[in-house]
Amino acid sequence: MFGSNCYSGLVNHPKIKEAAIEAVKKYGTGCAGSPFLNGTLDIHKNLEKKIANYIGKEDCMIYSTGFGVNLGVVSTLTGREDYILCDEQDHASIIEGRRLSFSNYLKYKHNDMASLEKQLQKCEPDRVKLIVTDGVFSMEGDVCKLPDIVDLAHKYNANIMVDEAHGIGVFGKGGRGVCDHFGLTDEVDLIMGTFSKSFASLGGFIATDPAITNFLRHHSRSYIFTASITPASTAAVSAAIDIMDSEPERQQHLWDITNYALDGFKTMGCEIGNTETPIIPLFIRDNGLTFLITRELFDEGIFVNPVVSPAVAPNDTLIRFSLMATHTKEQVEIALDKIGTIFRKHNLIP
């Protein structure tokens, strides 16, 4: 399985399974209501406190999905005369949140700080300016230039929101993400995360200050009008945080095999772009061939994901190879061997 987003490898951890089972025994399988009605339990509030402490923010609120977080936060926080500035490769959920906002929208070139500054210069100085970026970009595995973004935010009096969906479990102490990795948690106004990746569950969160969470609880429609996260999912996230904090060797092993795989693909001659994470794009640059190779690898026992338009530009199609902390060096070697054989067959590498 080289197609999972569970970088921590915790989806089958016995402690997480047990926590989910015990939550079902105590609370049942679901809340059958929104957080404002009957959908808030003590385990929800306890998890919000735990995540706020884990991420390093004053407060946190949890949503039913990660997509719902970006949809509900980005669409809600800024007004008609304000500005939302997004990287052109931000996740689709950020794009949808921006589409629902009444604010002015400015897009900057991917990880291009000169482009971001040019867009900031277009903004009225006394209006709210919210820069929204992925921490780790999900398709190509590169990392946002957060220190530079913070410098520009100071220069132009802007705010920052970072989507840590693919950074948590990978970067930072105990897997706290890119903001922690750069030591810039206090400089980022809003930190978003999802439970469906390294937390091995389902749902999402926004960590920020209490004034913002209070506003979102009363205005964010994807929070107000969606049923709450299930007790099992909630308990699983809590257990995952404990494991990531207490077992740093998991994260270290993830980086060991990531670097091993990166070296292997580079030596093989694969085009892998600017990745520096466990997300490794293998560029094919042909829609049909991307699907064909994905199928051939599947027949050889290797599961990877084809990424084609509109997820990427038609000439940027790729196979997304992603690693987990539970992978062994031997499994990576087998994958490298089979990928090499099939790529040579299609004249993609020497």
In terms of quaternary structure, what is this? single chain
Radius of gyration: 20 Å
Indicate the structural class: alpha/beta
What's the helical proportion of residues?
40-55%
Tell me about the largest β-sheet: 7 strands, mixed
Can you identify the CATH class of the largest domain?
Answer: Alpha Beta
Shape: globular
Supply the CATH architecture of the largest domain: 3-Layer(aba) Sandwich
Number of helices: 13
Detailed description of the structure:
- By secondary structure, the protein is an alpha/beta fold.
- The chain has 2 domains: 14-246, Type I PLP-dependent aspartate aminotransferase-like (Major domain) (Aspartate Aminotransferase, domain 2), CATH 3.40.640; 248-345, Aspartate Aminotransferase, domain 1 (Alpha-Beta Complex).
- The protein is 43% helix and 14% strand.
- It has 13 helices and 10 strands.
- It has helices at residues 14-27, 42-55, 66-74, 92-100, 113-121, 146-156, 178-181, 210-219, 221-224, 231-246, 248-268, 287-299, 329-345; strands spanning 59-63, 83-87, 104-108, 129-134, 159-163, 190-194, 204-208, 279-283, 305-307, 318-322.
- A 7-stranded mixed sheet has the order 1-7-6-5-4-2-3, sandwiched between helices. A 3-stranded antiparallel sheet has the order 8-10-9, with helices on one face.
- Helix 4 (92-100) links the parallel strand 2 (83-87) and strand 3.
- Helix 3 (66-74) packs parallel to helix 4 (92-100).
- The longest helix is centred in the C-terminal third of the chain and has 21 residues, at 248-268.
- It is globular.
- The two termini are 26 Å apart.
- The relative contact order is 0.17.
